[in-house]
């Protein structure tokens, strides 16, 4: 394949046609069956929603790119520029059709993205959630990226889990409590404080700046989920004596994918660890979820592979290991030196 015949261009979700979205959905459905074992492919509606709607969990603006030739779509790229924390990063994810690999398209695509990556002024380029053992890893390595953290995707298929696993009571001295959308005013200060406990999760060699949670940041995030029309759910453990939030777990369900809940942070404050709170809040979350969302089929969560405690808590409430994941990164200057233009 001559890359002169391939056009790499920005993709504008707001002006894209139905045929464009169908091509992306189909390209990804075939790829993901191989590249993302354990995750069902997205429907057309979910693909459109993902690209056209705001995401309350977004860490910065996204831009999309396509690779096409006369026969149609060959590949797709997503670039995210985090805009509050991690502003030294450009996050890049390339996808090339399953039958089109090892022909240099991925390399040419990355080269085509370089001017805009350089223009973003971000010194680090990060490819997140590359499936362990997939084509993405040797590609990343060939591009000079190094792996900075390995993780695990775990999934819970509601149908196949015995709900008795969620019959977990709060440890003595704590009560479980939950809400959707917005934290109660009386808990917001200690809830924001408890959210900072995620910074203790293992980060291996990845330099990652966690959110500096304050009550205002919590309200900003809640507003973002509300504006995106996403079902945002939180369960906390409250320490009875102090009235403070000791542990939190949060997840979100997007309107375009109503059968899939995505677990986000789970954290227990240091002084409250070792009492089984992680398991108790996750079990409570499942009890509430299945009661409120009978259409829910699955929950997915990602965790650093060496976060043995969290991985074990997830197993205890019915998650199974779906696939390994890795983050790969390089300095932008090194990539430019390697690929040039
Ligand atoms: C990663 C991906 C975009 C690569 O696309 P591609 O068009 O096959 O990449 P290229 O043909 O330009 O590969 C460049 C080099 O990477 C290395 N490489 C790529 N895939 C490889 C594989 N499966 N095994 C060994 N080396 C591989 C080779 O050194 C290759 O050069 P060569 O073919 O001359 O030996 C594609 O495999 C893909 O879409 N994977 C799924 C999504 C993903 O994991 N993305 C990661 C984003 S960084």
What features would you describe in this structure?
The protein is of the alpha+beta class and 341 residues long. It has two domains: 3-152 and 326-339, Aminopeptidase (3-Layer(aba) Sandwich); 162-317, Gcn5-related N-acetyltransferase (GNAT) (Aminopeptidase). It has helices at residues 18-35, 44-52, 105-119, 136-142, 188-195, 215-227, 277-292, 308-316, 332-339; strands at residues 7-11, 62-69, 72-80, 89-96, 124-131, 146-157, 174-180, 231-239, 244-253, 260-268, 298-304, 320-331. Strands 1-2-3-4-5-12-6-11-10-9-8-7 form a twelve-stranded mixed sheet, with helices on both faces. Helix 3 (105-119) links the parallel strand 4 (89-96) and strand 5 (124-131). The mean pLDDT is 95. The site of coenzyme A has 23 residues, from helix 1, strand 4, helix 3, strand 5 and helix 4.
Short description:
With 341 residues, the protein is an alpha+beta fold. Helices cover 30% and strands 30% of the residues. It contains 9 helices and 12 strands.
Keywords:
9 helices, 12 strands, Aminopeptidase, 341 residues, binds coenzyme A, alpha+beta, 12-stranded mixed β-sheet
């Amino acid at each position: 394949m001559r890359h002169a015949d391939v056009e790499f261009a920005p993709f504008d979700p707001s002006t894209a046609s139905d045929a464009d979205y169908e091509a992306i959905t189909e390209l990804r459905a075939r790829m993901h069956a191989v590249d993302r074992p354990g995750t069902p492919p997205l429907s057309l509606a979910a693909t459109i929603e993902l690209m056209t709607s705001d995401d309350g969990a977004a860490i910065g603006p996204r831009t999309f790119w396509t690779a096409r030739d006369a026969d149609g779509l060959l590949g797709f790229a997503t670039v995210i520029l985090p805009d509050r924390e991690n502003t030294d990063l450009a996050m890049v994810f390339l996808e090339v059709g399953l039958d089109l690999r090892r022909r240099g398209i991925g390399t040419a695509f990355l080269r085509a993205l370089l001017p805009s990556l350089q223009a973003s002024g971000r010194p680090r380029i990060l490819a997140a959630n590359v499936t362990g053992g997939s084509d993405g890893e040797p590609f990343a390595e060939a591009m000079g990226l190094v792996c900075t953290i390995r993780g695990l995707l775990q999934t819970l298929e509601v149908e196949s889990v015995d709900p008795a696993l969620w019959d977990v009571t709060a440890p003595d001295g704590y009560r479980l409590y939950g809400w959707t959308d917005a934290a109660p005013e009386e808990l917001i200060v200690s809830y924001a404080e408890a959210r900072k406990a995620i910074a203790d999760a293992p980060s291996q060699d990845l330099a990652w700046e966690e959110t500096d949670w304050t009550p205002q940041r919590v309200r900003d995030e809640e507003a973002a989920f509300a504006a995106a029309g996403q079902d945002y759910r939180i369960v906390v453990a409250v320490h009875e004596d102090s009235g403070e939030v000791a542990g939190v777990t949060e997840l979100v369900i997007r309107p375009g994918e109503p059968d899939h809940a995505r677990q986000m942070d789970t954290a227990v404050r240091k002084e409250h660890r070792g009492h089984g709170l992680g398991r108790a809040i996750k079990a409570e979350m499942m009890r509430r979820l299945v009661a409120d969302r009978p259409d829910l089929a699955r929950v997915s969560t990602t965790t650093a592979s060496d976060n043995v405690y969290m991985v074990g808590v997830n197993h205890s409430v019915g998650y199974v290991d779906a696939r390994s994941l890795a983050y790969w990164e390089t300095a932008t200057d090194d990539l430019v030196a390697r690929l040039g233009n």
